[in-house]
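User: Good morning. I'm curious how iron/sulfur cluster would be positioned relative to this chain. Could you predict the structure with it bound?
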Amino acid sequence: METKKKTFKGGFVFKGFQGYPLAVVESIGLPETVMYPLLDTKSLNEALVSKGDTVKAGQLLWQNDDVMGSPVIATINGTVKSIKPTMWEGSKVPVITVESDGTEKWTPVKGVTEDLDSLDAADIEETLYFAGVASSGRDGIPTRFNTSPIKSEEVQHLIVKHCESDVYNTDLSVLLRENTLEDFFDGLSLLKKIMPNARVYMAMNRKNPPWIKELSSDLFDEMVLVTPKYPQGQDEILTETVTGMKIPGECTPANASAIVLDVQTVLHVYDAVKTGKPLLEKIITMAGPGFSNRSHVKVRIGTSFDQIVKGRTAGKENRYIINSTMTGSAVSDMAKPLESDCNILIALEEGRVGEIMLWTKPGFRKHSIMNTMANAIFPLAKINNTNMNGEERACLSCGNCYNVCPSGLYPTQLFKYVERDKVDETVMRYGIFKCIDCNLCTYVCTAKIPLSDFMKEGKARLIKDGYASKKEILTSYGLKETE
Ligand code: SF4
Ligand code: SF4
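Assistant: Good morning! Here's the predicted structure, ligand included:
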């Protein structure tokens, strides 16, 4: 195994905020009900169960192999309470709802064996598909089923990541305490069997020496030690850092024949194949000052966010954000269920404070890239809420946006073109499609200009107006088309 230090130009280190979670895992117990949203109203006809049926955890509820992903599986034992369109935020979503019978047991996926060496790739792929694990990660895990935009044998780079570059991150020791290092390495060996042509990398926060030592193994071709600055953990930047191939924001690592998975997914692979455990639950990191009780919790997939946060809030009005304060999506309705792509749930107090002339205040708990706040001298834990911390004004040419941009862009220049409606070949020449929507330019902008929104708008308009197609973007970056 080679060990290399790699990083990217730009980026930003977040540290010293309020709301970090404790390195412990708690269980919130069995939910009373779970919900499984389906694709569209047509999917209701493809449900494999009916109202009133008894279901077992691990049982298939819905399957359509024409749709990329895994089948929907029950994550609790109980009875199907309803299968119907449900109103969330003014739109109808088809949902299967199951009421728990209070029992914990689950039905193992077929094909389980203690003897992992006896399994071939086809066995592993089938188990991962029926365990609901194969759709994990941005591009899924390639199998003989329709679970990824690329085929197993096309994968040239398998990247396992633990980069800790966001404001709040999952604690690796928590994940590897629930399983063991041996389980992780067994999971990795199984993945290597189904992606035989891949060079295998472990991308690790270089400031985590104990775990670098623990995870060093000849199962990896390369240990990549990365600087834990945002957005290193974002799959596009990570793939570029590790492989040297640029992934524009409109593309995914699969376009560069790469698959990026996190440590928890590797452990789910192990659980599914060695113990037959379907993907019933996840360890979710509950972070942010909006929670009074912050830790890592085991949650059954399909549990509503209402049930997850119950008894953990500080009684304030919070905004709940999935996975990242920088790029995550806000939970629009707390009645919605947790889905398998959620790793971190962040609670930020809604900021309703008008902050006129903020820069005249000392800012003992304020964060500023410019080190102009008192927090630079008195490093008290910084407040993290949804306040804008100032109002939009004209660009001050401070240079923050292009100093941090991981794609080497000049957001200050590009936004002016989009704002003035000059969206044509010029902004393409300036590289707007390199933007990976990390939102860092907006975060650091002294003038509070929503720069990343202008980037998104510019790219969307270029595609809509026919200046560029996805195929042309792929070709210009030397990437491959995927399904
Ligand atoms: S221009 Fe795009 S890639 Fe660069 S910092 Fe802004 S959002 Fe990130
Ligand atoms: S960070 Fe904002 S104020 Fe500074 S140069 Fe960029 S756009 Fe202008």
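The first strand starts at residue 2 and ends at 6. Residues 395-401, 411-412, 444-447, 449, 451 surround iron/sulfur cluster (ligand 2) (CB under 6 Å).
Let me know if you'd like a different ligand tried.
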